[in-house]
Amino acid sequence: MNARPLRLSTTSPDFEAELSRRLHWSAETDAQVEQVVADILADVRVRGDEAVLEYTQKFDGLAVASVSGLELEQRELKNAYHGLPVQQREALQAAATRVRAYHVAQKRATGESWSYRDEMGTLLGQKVTPLDRVGIYVPGGKAAYPSSVLMNAIPAQVAGVEEIIMVVPTPRGERNQLVLAAAHVSGVSRAFTIGGAQAVGALAYGTKTIAKVDKITGPGNAYVASAKRRVFGAVGIDMIAGPSEILVLADGTTPPDWVAMDLFSQAEHDELAQSILLCPDAAYIEQVQQAIDRLLADMPRAEIIARSLNGRGALIHTRSMQEACDISNRIAPEHLEIASDDPHLWEPHLRHAGAIFLGRFTSESLGDYCAGPNHVLPTSGTARFSSPLGVYDFQKRSSLIEVSEAGALALGQIASVLAHGEGLQAHARAAEMRMKR
Ligand SMILES: NC(=O)c1ccc[n+]([C@@H]2O[C@H](COP(=O)([O-])OP(=O)(O)OC[C@H]3O[C@@H](n4cnc5c(N)ncnc54)[C@H](O)[C@@H]3O)[C@@H](O)[C@H]2O)c1
Ligand SMILES: N[C@H](CO)Cc1c[nH]c[nH+]1
Ligand SMILES: [Zn+2]
User: Fold this and answer.
1) Ligand 1, CB cutoff 6 Å, lining residues
2) In this predicted complex, what is the ipTM?
3) Cα separation, 119 vs 423, whole angstroms
4) CATH 3.40.50.1980 location in the chain
5) Which sites bind NAD(+) (predicted)?
6) Could you say which architecture CATH assigns to the domain 6-25+242-371?
7) Are strands 245-250 and 335-339 parallel, antiparallel or unpaired?
8) What is the DSSP letter of 278?
9) Rounded to two decimals, what is the model's pTM?
10) What fold characterizes domain 31-237?
11) Which of 3, 16, 58, 244 could be 309's S-S partner, Cβ–Cβ 3.0 to 4.6 Å?
12) Per-residue pLDDT tens for 62-104?
């Protein structure tokens, strides 16, 4: 099996068009997926538990008599944790500790209430409150993702969310013990073995057994993405996460094998995942291609990797590192590695990426599991305007205003003029009444 990412050069007159074609991704808006999802959601909304049961049997081959039969008891989560081999239990605990520490720091920096008084003694501020109940979607169709349990549940817990409901499909009823154990260490309140659009619908509308949530977070396949987009409004959502992406900016100083493996690491998620290398050194690009050829045969998921690299991968020769940075900013990748001896030279030039990994020792995969920052990140160029999943996704903000007597006089004059200008008499009088004391 060969993996030959598309070779591009920025000096080619067709470069822009070829790059755009490579970046284009349409599965998310596939009309057939949309219709299937619309039907499932409508059905779950009307028939609740009954519909959830039927779709779980149909898509996951899991048949039980009632939705409570799909609930994982807290005891089972705890037993899964204690039943893990010691090495796995310690790794899970170490990852959870680091992810928690990062999100606690994030809350301290960005997630606290604040206020001040103006010169007339009027109090102005913002009150931050956690959401009451959230649903976290943990993908489970083609692979199990205990790390995604941590990345969703821990920031919710740190934010102070009271009830965290986890959904995770378990094809043919096979329960992944690491996923269950991760739910135990990260404070999941209730967990159900359901997935796809039916799980999103159950969380968004509520059923007899599953309580309606305020927000749904977490990644998933095209069915999950489409369902999340459709239920937005009935509930909040974090983002629509597409297939994984990695972009490596290399100056030729990192061993080519390391870079090849980093490209594989996202390609192995999905045939639609995207791995791109940008480098000003043509000979180095050739060495990375040779490393790909040599290392691929040994990869258990070689077929998925090859499909991903052949269909969506690219090795791009640039005129300079600066030009590579400019192209990276246009792509706005989910994960951006700066494979350079001097990553801090280039980091100030990089503005759009879900997560930036600096230097040759920072493989993206460390971020997926245990560095600390969240691995649920904006994809498909949405890093231009959105951010990683974080504590802030599980909080909301209310403005606080307490006007002093002197403030009522000063603000009343401004409000009165503007309210009359808008022809809104009640607004004007409400302000004016407070000026007369
Ligand atoms: N961005 C991240 O942080 C992150 C993390 C982990 C995984 N991922 C991505 O999440 C995705 C997970 O996908 P997955 O498929 O393994 O699991 P999934 O849980 O997202 O989807 C499985 C569900 O899809 C539904 N489904 C499957 N075929 C269907 C059909 N024909 N009609 C209706 N519904 C159908 C079923 O209900 C099934 O339960 C992958 O693309 C992976 O790369 C992203
Ligand atoms: N790279 C994925 C996010 O794009 C997250 C993940 C989970 N497990 C391994 N990787
Ligand atoms: Zn990954």
Assistant:
1) 36, 59-60, 139-143, 145, 148, 169, 195-196, 219-221, 223-224, 241, 243-244, 269-270, 375-376
2) 0.98
3) 30
4) 6-25+242-371, 31-237
5) 137, 198, 221
6) 3-Layer(aba) Sandwich (3.40)
7) parallel
8) E
9) 0.96
10) Rossmann fold (3.40.50)
11) 3
12) 999 999 999 999 999 999 999 999 999 999 999 999 999 999 9
